[in-house]
Amino acid sequence: MTVWVVCADSARARIFSAESARDQLSEVQDLSHPESRIRPRDMVSDRDGRRADSVGRGMHGVGGERDEPKREEAERFARTLGQTLNEAGRSGRYQRLHILAAPAFLGLLRHHLADDVRTLLRSETAANIVTQGIKEIRAHLPERL
């Protein structure tokens, strides 16, 4: 029985595999989404507009939130990772799945996991540990995968 462990944030996902519930983890895939690392101000071409306050002499910015492009990129990466996990689960590449992801990204990823793949999910942990080593990642998982 193959177990997959996914560690992810909005810009990177590492997929580990173990052949049994007590086997060592080995990294099988490292996905990156560099667009999520770009600063929001570098993602948009110009500054938000400005308008005069209806009372007084103040000026206020108008327009969308500055973090919107970053959110869109995180959503795009969550969709891509979800598709990868859905395809692999349906093709039998793993029978159990554990997800450790940055809290905001975990919420996005949940929306992109298919119902049949969710039945393979054994645990999910809101933790931003994608850059940590295998030993530290393993410490966040149940003893028996």
Task: Classify the beta-strand content into a percent band.
Answer: 25-35%
Order of helices and strands: EEEHEEHEHHEH
Q: What would you report as the Rg, rounded to the nearest angstrom?
A: 19 Å
Are there runs of 5+ residues with pLDDT below 50, and where? Answer: none
Mean pLDDT: 86
Number of distinct helices: 5
Helix/strand-derived category reads alpha/beta
Biggest sheet layout: 5 strands, mixed
What percent of the residues sit in helical stretches (DSSP H or I)?
25-40%
Distance between the termini: 10 Å
Strand order of the largest sheet: 3-2-1-6-7
Number of strands: 7
Question: Helices, strands, pairings?
Answer:
Elements: E1 3-8, E2 12-18, E3 26-32, H1 40-43, E4 49-52, E5 59-62, H2 68-90, E6 96-101, H3 103-110, H4 115-118, E7 121-126, H5 134-139
Parallel strand pairs: 1-6, 6-7
Antiparallel strand pairs: 1-2, 2-3, 4-5
Which short descriptors sum up this protein?
5 helices; two-stranded antiparallel ribbon
Can you offer a commentary on this structure?
The protein is of the alpha/beta class. It has a domain at 67-145. The protein is built from five helices and seven strands; from the N terminus they run βββαββαβααβα. Strands 3-2-1-6-7 form a five-stranded mixed beta sheet. Strands 4-5 form a two-stranded antiparallel ribbon. Helix 2 (68-90) packs across helix 3. The chain starts with a strand and ends in a 6-residue tail after the last helix.
Quick recap:
This protein has 145 residues and is an alpha/beta fold. It has helices at residues 40-43, 68-90, 103-110, 115-118, 134-139, and strands at residues 3-8, 12-18, 26-32, 49-52, 59-62, 96-101, 121-126.
